[in-house]
C-alpha cells in the first residue's frame, strides 16, 4: 500500500509498504483523511521524542472499516470510524484509572511496529475504534483526535460556566481547545496569536476577544484591560519563551494555567507569584478514552465549527507540499488534511 513517510529529517516521501497483519481483535480501516499535527512537524524536524525518522507518520484519522478480525463485534465492514491513537498496557494503576495517556508502556502510531495513519489503510484494536454516524463528513471526523486534546485541556483546567479564559496560540489545537472551553461554559474567551488569519478563525470558533501580540511587549496588561479583569483560566497552546510567566501574570489569584503545547526548551518560572498568590500550573498530555468519546459526540452533534479549522485538503501524493505549508506557514494554513481515495 501507499504510505507517507518521513524518511529523514526535513524530507517527506510517498512509498510502498506491506499491509500490517490483522489480529483477531483488530480492525483494518481504509483511511479517508489524516491530519498533519504540530507534533508531526516536530518529527519532520527530527525533534520528536519518539517518532523518529524513518517513520510512517500520522495519528489523526477518519476512515471506513475494510476488514475486521474474528473476535470484533462493535463495528462492521462499511462503518465510518475515527480512532483514539494510543494503547496502554491495561494493567498499570494509570490504565486501571482510565489514564491511558500516562501509561509508561503506552504505544502510539509511528512507534515501530505500529504504522502511522498516513497510509491507504491503518490497523487498530477494536477498543480504540469509534463508530461515527453514517453521514458524517470524513474531513470533520478527522478532527476527533485534536479536539480530544482540547477536551482534555478543558478538563485539566476545570473550566466551568461563566469563566474567563485566555487561549494563547490559535493554531488547530488552540482553536479546538477554544471550542471545548466554550462548550464547557466559558463566557469570556480571549485568543492571542501573531497571525491575524488565525485570530479571524478564533472569532469564528467563538472567541469574544482577540489580540495580535506581535511587537506588543505589554500584551499581558492589554489583554487584561480588554476584558476588564484578570482571567480565571489560561490554556497555553504555543511553546514560546516566557509564556509560562506571562500566563501566570494573566490569571487571578487561585487561577489555573494549563500547558498543552510541546516545549522544546526549559521555561523560567516565577515561583513567588505561583506560591504567594496560590496560582496553579497544570500539565496536559494527549487525552483519555472518555475525552475522545466526548470529542466524537461533539463533532457528531454539530457542536463544533470544525470547518473553520480545516484550511487545506490535499491528496497523499502532495503530502510533502502539505508538510511544507504547515512548517513554513505558506498560504495561511491551519489544519491541513491528507486524503486517500
UniProtKB/TrEMBL annotation:
SMART domains named among the record's database cross-references: PKS_ER (SM00829)
Family membership noted in the UniProt record: Belongs to the zinc-containing alcohol dehydrogenase family.
Pfam family, one: ADH_N
Annotated InterPro entries: ADH-like_C, ADH-like_N, ADH_Zn_CS, ER, GroES-like_sf, NAD(P)-bd_dom_sf
Lineage: Bacteria, Bacillati, Bacillota, Bacilli, Bacillales
SUPFAM superfamilies, alphabetized: GroES-like, NAD(P)-binding Rossmann-fold domains
MF GO annotations: oxidoreductase activity; zinc ion binding
Secretion signal, residue range per the UniProt entry: none
Cofactor(s) the protein needs: Zn(2+)
Domain Enoyl reductase (ER) positions: 4-338
Name this protein carries in UniProt: L-iditol 2-dehydrogenase
Keywords annotated in UniProt: Metal-binding, Oxidoreductase, Zinc
Organism, as annotated: Sporolactobacillus nakayamae
Superkingdom per UniProt: Bacteria
Amino acid at each position: 500500500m501507499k504510505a507517507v513517510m518521513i524518511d529523514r529529517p526535513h524530507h517527506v516521501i510517498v512509498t510502498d509498504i506491506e499491509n500490517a497483519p490483522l489480529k483477531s481483535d483488530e480492525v483494518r480501516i481504509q483511511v479517508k483523511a489524516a491530519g498533519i499535527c504540530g507534533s508531526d512537524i516536530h518529527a519532520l524536524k527530527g525533534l520528536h521524542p519518539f517518532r523518529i525518522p524513518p517513520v510512517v507518520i500520522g495519528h489523526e484519522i477518519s476512515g471506513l472499516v475494510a476488514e475486521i478480525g474474528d473476535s470484533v463485534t462493535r463495528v462492521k465492514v462499511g462503518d465510518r470510524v475515527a480512532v483514539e491513537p494510543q494503547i496502554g498496557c491495561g494493567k498499570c494503576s494509570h490504565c486501571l484509572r482510565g489514564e491511558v495517556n500516562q501509561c509508561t508502556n503506552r504505544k502510539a502510531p509511528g512507534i515501530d511496529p505500529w504504522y502511522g495513519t498516513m497510509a491507504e489503510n491503518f490497523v487498530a484494536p477494536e477498543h480504540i475504534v469509534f463508530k461515527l454516524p453514517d453521514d458524517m463528513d470524513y474531513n470533520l471526523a478527522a478532527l476527533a483526535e485534536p479536539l480530544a486534546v482540547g477536551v482534555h485541556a478543558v478538563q485539566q483546567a476545570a473550566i466551568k460556566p461563566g469563566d474567563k479564559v485566555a487561549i494563547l496560540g490559535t493554531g488547530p489545537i488552540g482553536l479546538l481547545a477554544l471550542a471545548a472551553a466554550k462548550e464547557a461554559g466559558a463566557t469570556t474567551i480571549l485568543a492571542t496569536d501573531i497571525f491575524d488569519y488565525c485570530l479571524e478563525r478564533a472569532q469564528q470558533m467563538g472567541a469574544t476577544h482577540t489580540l495580535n501580540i506581535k511587537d506588543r511587549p505589554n500584551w499581558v496588561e492589554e489583554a487584561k484591560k480588554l476584558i476588564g479583569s484578570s482571567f480565571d483560566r489560561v490554556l497555553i497552546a504555543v511553546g514560546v519563551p516566557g509564556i509560562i510567566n506571562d500566563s501566570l501574570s494573566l490569571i487571578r489569584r487561585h487561577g489555573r494555567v494549563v500547558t498543552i503545547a510541546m516545549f522544546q526548551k526549559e521555561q523560567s518560572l516565577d515561583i513567588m507569584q505561583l506560591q504567594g498568590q496560590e496560582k496553579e500550573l497544570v500539565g496536559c498530555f494527549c487525552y483519555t478514552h472518555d475525552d475522545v468519546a466526548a470529542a466524537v459526540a461533539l463533532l457528531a452533534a454539530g457542536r463544533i465549527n470544525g470547518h473553520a479549522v480545516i484550511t487545506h485538503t490535499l491528496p497523499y501524493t502532495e503530502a510533502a507540499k502539505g508538510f511544507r505549508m504547515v512548517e513554513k506557514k505558506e498560504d495561511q494554513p491551519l489544519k491541513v488534511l491528507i486524503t486517500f481515495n
